[in-house]
Amino acid sequence: MPASRPLETPPATDLGRLRAALLPTPAAGVFVLEDGVGEETLTPASVLFPIVLRPAAPTVLLTQRTAHLKDHPGQISFPGGRAEPEDPSPAHTALREAEEEIGLPAGRVEIAGYLPEYRTGTGFRVTPVVAMVTPPFDLRPDPFEVAEVFEVPLAFLLDPANHKRHALHYRGQLRHYYAMPYGDYFIWGATAGMIMSLYQALGARR
Predict the structure, then answer these.
(1) Exposed / middle / buried, residue 4 (Cβ in 10 Å: 0-12, 13-18, 19+)
(2) What value, to the nearest 5°, has the Cα angle with vertex 63 and ends 161 and 91?
(3) pLDDT single digits (tens) 100-131
(4) Which CATH architecture has domain 15-205?
(5) N or C, which end of the chain is more exposed by having fewer CB within 10 Å?
(6) Which residues sit opposite 163 in a β-bridge?
(7) Percent of the chain at pLDDT above 90?
(8) Ranges of each domain in the chain
Protein backbone atom coordinates (compact mmCIF):
# COMPACT_ATOMS: atom_id res chain seq x y z
CA MET A 1 0.00 0.00 0.00
CA PRO A 2 1.39 3.49 -0.79
CA ALA A 3 2.75 5.55 2.09
CA SER A 4 0.41 8.02 3.76
CA ARG A 5 0.78 11.56 2.42
CA PRO A 6 -0.22 14.29 4.90
CA LEU A 7 -2.94 16.66 3.75
CA GLU A 8 -2.37 20.39 4.12
CA THR A 9 -5.81 20.97 5.60
CA PRO A 10 -7.77 18.30 7.53
CA PRO A 11 -10.78 17.57 5.28
CA ALA A 12 -12.86 15.74 7.88
CA THR A 13 -15.77 18.17 8.13
CA ASP A 14 -15.76 19.24 4.46
CA LEU A 15 -18.30 16.74 3.19
CA GLY A 16 -18.60 18.47 -0.18
CA ARG A 17 -14.89 17.92 -0.76
CA LEU A 18 -15.24 14.33 0.42
CA ARG A 19 -18.07 13.63 -2.02
CA ALA A 20 -16.04 15.10 -4.87
CA ALA A 21 -13.15 12.73 -4.08
CA LEU A 22 -15.29 9.58 -4.47
CA LEU A 23 -15.84 7.51 -7.58
CA PRO A 24 -19.35 8.16 -8.97
CA THR A 25 -19.85 4.48 -9.86
CA PRO A 26 -18.19 1.21 -8.80
CA ALA A 27 -15.00 0.65 -10.78
CA ALA A 28 -13.90 -2.99 -10.86
CA GLY A 29 -10.73 -2.06 -12.75
CA VAL A 30 -9.61 0.39 -10.06
CA PHE A 31 -8.45 -1.36 -6.91
CA VAL A 32 -6.17 -1.45 -3.90
CA LEU A 33 -4.32 -4.68 -3.09
CA GLU A 34 -3.88 -5.59 0.54
CA ASP A 35 -0.18 -6.11 1.20
CA GLY A 36 0.78 -9.62 0.07
CA VAL A 37 -2.34 -10.29 -2.02
CA GLY A 38 -2.00 -11.73 -5.52
CA GLU A 39 -4.29 -11.53 -8.52
CA GLU A 40 -6.13 -14.81 -7.89
CA THR A 41 -9.89 -15.18 -8.33
CA LEU A 42 -11.67 -13.35 -5.53
CA THR A 43 -15.26 -13.38 -4.23
CA PRO A 44 -17.20 -10.11 -4.78
CA ALA A 45 -18.39 -8.34 -1.65
CA SER A 46 -19.44 -4.87 -0.52
CA VAL A 47 -19.26 -2.87 2.68
CA LEU A 48 -21.11 0.25 3.72
CA PHE A 49 -18.76 3.07 4.81
CA PRO A 50 -21.38 4.95 6.86
CA ILE A 51 -20.66 8.58 7.72
CA VAL A 52 -23.17 9.67 10.36
CA LEU A 53 -24.22 13.32 10.10
CA ARG A 54 -24.06 14.19 13.81
CA PRO A 55 -24.77 17.87 14.67
CA ALA A 56 -21.37 18.45 16.31
CA ALA A 57 -19.25 16.68 13.67
CA PRO A 58 -19.55 13.67 11.35
CA THR A 59 -18.69 10.23 12.69
CA VAL A 60 -18.09 6.82 11.12
CA LEU A 61 -20.20 3.87 12.25
CA LEU A 62 -18.22 0.67 12.79
CA THR A 63 -18.88 -2.80 14.18
CA GLN A 64 -16.88 -5.31 16.14
CA ARG A 65 -17.38 -8.82 14.81
CA THR A 66 -18.10 -11.70 17.16
CA ALA A 67 -15.18 -13.94 18.06
CA HIS A 68 -16.59 -17.17 16.56
CA LEU A 69 -16.96 -16.01 12.94
CA LYS A 70 -14.91 -17.75 10.25
CA ASP A 71 -13.82 -14.54 8.47
CA HIS A 72 -12.07 -11.80 10.49
CA PRO A 73 -13.30 -12.91 13.97
CA GLY A 74 -13.29 -10.17 16.59
CA GLN A 75 -12.07 -7.50 14.18
CA ILE A 76 -13.40 -3.99 13.72
CA SER A 77 -15.23 -3.77 10.41
CA PHE A 78 -17.73 -1.90 8.31
CA PRO A 79 -21.14 -3.56 7.94
CA GLY A 80 -21.12 -5.66 4.78
CA GLY A 81 -20.55 -9.05 3.25
CA ARG A 82 -20.39 -11.12 0.11
CA ALA A 83 -22.64 -10.35 -2.87
CA GLU A 84 -25.62 -12.64 -3.43
CA PRO A 85 -26.73 -13.65 -6.96
CA GLU A 86 -29.94 -11.64 -6.58
CA ASP A 87 -28.14 -8.40 -5.63
CA PRO A 88 -28.40 -5.99 -8.59
CA SER A 89 -25.45 -3.79 -7.52
CA PRO A 90 -22.68 -3.35 -4.95
CA ALA A 91 -24.74 -0.61 -3.28
CA HIS A 92 -27.66 -3.02 -2.90
CA THR A 93 -25.33 -5.60 -1.31
CA ALA A 94 -23.97 -3.01 1.16
CA LEU A 95 -27.42 -1.73 2.12
CA ARG A 96 -28.85 -5.25 2.48
CA GLU A 97 -25.95 -6.39 4.63
CA ALA A 98 -26.10 -3.27 6.81
CA GLU A 99 -29.80 -3.86 7.47
CA GLU A 100 -29.23 -7.56 8.19
CA GLU A 101 -26.18 -7.05 10.43
CA ILE A 102 -27.10 -3.96 12.44
CA GLY A 103 -30.67 -3.06 11.46
CA LEU A 104 -29.67 0.20 9.75
CA PRO A 105 -32.74 1.31 7.75
CA ALA A 106 -31.99 2.06 4.10
CA GLY A 107 -34.31 5.09 4.29
CA ARG A 108 -31.78 6.89 6.50
CA VAL A 109 -28.90 6.24 4.07
CA GLU A 110 -27.82 8.30 1.04
CA ILE A 111 -25.16 6.79 -1.23
CA ALA A 112 -22.42 9.40 -1.77
CA GLY A 113 -20.03 7.43 -4.00
CA TYR A 114 -17.47 4.64 -4.05
CA LEU A 115 -13.86 3.91 -3.25
CA PRO A 116 -11.63 1.60 -5.31
CA GLU A 117 -12.16 -2.11 -4.79
CA TYR A 118 -10.17 -3.45 -1.87
CA ARG A 119 -8.73 -6.92 -2.49
CA THR A 120 -8.00 -8.94 0.63
CA GLY A 121 -5.78 -11.84 1.55
CA THR A 122 -8.85 -13.75 2.73
CA GLY A 123 -10.18 -14.04 -0.82
CA PHE A 124 -12.55 -11.08 -1.31
CA ARG A 125 -12.71 -8.12 -3.68
CA VAL A 126 -14.65 -5.56 -1.68
CA THR A 127 -16.46 -2.50 -3.03
CA PRO A 128 -16.58 0.22 -0.33
CA VAL A 129 -19.87 2.11 -0.68
CA VAL A 130 -19.57 5.48 1.05
CA ALA A 131 -22.85 6.82 2.40
CA MET A 132 -24.25 9.66 4.50
CA VAL A 133 -26.49 8.47 7.34
CA THR A 134 -29.01 10.88 8.82
CA PRO A 135 -30.00 10.43 12.49
CA PRO A 136 -32.10 9.44 14.28
CA PHE A 137 -32.04 5.69 13.73
CA ASP A 138 -32.46 2.66 15.96
CA LEU A 139 -30.03 -0.17 15.39
CA ARG A 140 -30.71 -3.88 15.97
CA PRO A 141 -27.34 -5.69 15.80
CA ASP A 142 -27.43 -9.36 14.87
CA PRO A 143 -25.94 -11.04 17.98
CA PHE A 144 -24.50 -13.89 15.90
CA GLU A 145 -22.36 -11.58 13.77
CA VAL A 146 -21.97 -8.33 15.70
CA ALA A 147 -20.55 -7.98 19.22
CA GLU A 148 -20.78 -4.18 19.30
CA VAL A 149 -21.64 -1.11 17.21
CA PHE A 150 -19.84 2.18 17.88
CA GLU A 151 -18.91 5.48 16.22
CA VAL A 152 -15.54 7.17 15.71
CA PRO A 153 -15.12 10.84 14.71
CA LEU A 154 -14.36 11.14 11.01
CA ALA A 155 -11.74 13.78 11.88
CA PHE A 156 -9.85 11.21 13.99
CA LEU A 157 -9.79 8.62 11.19
CA LEU A 158 -8.58 11.11 8.58
CA ASP A 159 -5.88 12.68 10.78
CA PRO A 160 -2.48 11.36 9.60
CA ALA A 161 -1.21 11.56 13.20
CA ASN A 162 -3.48 8.58 13.92
CA HIS A 163 -2.26 6.42 11.01
CA LYS A 164 0.15 3.93 12.58
CA ARG A 165 2.31 1.58 10.47
CA HIS A 166 2.74 -1.98 11.73
CA ALA A 167 4.32 -5.15 10.38
CA LEU A 168 3.87 -8.87 11.05
CA HIS A 169 5.09 -12.15 9.62
CA TYR A 170 2.24 -14.01 7.92
CA ARG A 171 2.61 -17.15 5.80
CA GLY A 172 6.35 -16.67 5.58
CA GLN A 173 6.17 -13.04 4.45
CA LEU A 174 6.67 -9.75 6.25
CA ARG A 175 3.46 -7.80 5.71
CA HIS A 176 2.86 -4.13 6.44
CA TYR A 177 -0.46 -2.61 7.42
CA TYR A 178 -2.04 0.51 8.87
CA ALA A 179 -3.81 0.66 12.22
CA MET A 180 -5.81 3.42 13.93
CA PRO A 181 -6.07 2.68 17.66
CA TYR A 182 -9.08 4.47 19.16
CA GLY A 183 -9.57 3.97 22.89
CA ASP A 184 -10.05 0.24 23.45
CA TYR A 185 -10.62 -0.37 19.72
CA PHE A 186 -7.83 -1.46 17.37
CA ILE A 187 -8.89 -0.55 13.83
CA TRP A 188 -6.66 -2.36 11.33
CA GLY A 189 -6.68 -4.73 8.37
CA ALA A 190 -9.12 -4.15 5.52
CA THR A 191 -11.11 -1.57 7.50
CA ALA A 192 -8.06 0.62 8.09
CA GLY A 193 -7.02 0.03 4.48
CA MET A 194 -10.34 1.39 3.18
CA ILE A 195 -10.12 4.39 5.50
CA MET A 196 -6.63 5.05 4.10
CA SER A 197 -8.10 4.74 0.60
CA LEU A 198 -10.49 7.59 1.41
CA TYR A 199 -7.66 9.62 2.95
CA GLN A 200 -5.52 9.14 -0.17
CA ALA A 201 -8.46 9.99 -2.48
CA LEU A 202 -8.85 13.28 -0.62
CA GLY A 203 -5.12 13.92 -1.01
CA ALA A 204 -5.30 13.22 -4.72
CA ARG A 205 -8.30 15.52 -5.04
CA ARG A 206 -6.30 18.31 -3.36
Answers:
(1) middle
(2) 95
(3) 999 999 999 999 999 999 998 788 999 999 99
(4) Alpha-Beta Complex (3.90)
(5) C
(6) none
(7) 68
(8) 15-205
